[in-house]
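Q: Could you fold this chain for me?
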Amino acid sequence: MLTIFFFVARKFAYVRPFPKYLRLVTPFLRLNISYKRILQTRTTEMSILFPPSKLSSWQRESMAPLLGKTAIVVDLKAYPIPLAFLRFFLSPFFFKNKTPHFVFLVEDWMRFSIELESLRTGGDIIRKEEKDSISSLLSSISSDK
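A: Sure. Below is the predicted structure, expressed as structure tokens.
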């Protein structure tokens, strides 16, 4: 029963960027991480973060299919909740060392990384005033002809 539970539970776990925060959801924890807390994001391979030689035999066996995949490391100014609480509800593979960060392994890391950075930096947002000024500029240019 426990195996079935863990198999089903992993299907309900996800991380998703929203306009104002990054949401991390697991069966036992829902966490919104403000973009103000994020210092930077970077990509790396799981095998670099967690070298197989430093893993115990059961960890190596369970992580073997994931070690060749690309992960997103989100460096934070500080954790949104105490680290002890996070460690209780999250796998040790969410944390590579003692600095504030999360390691996320997602299906399409490139799309996720672009979407996260775009929302975090506001790169895809054109303010209404800027949009209006651009359209008024274009209309004035076309009326001059």
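A (continued): Residues 115 and 134 are 25 Å apart (CA to CA).
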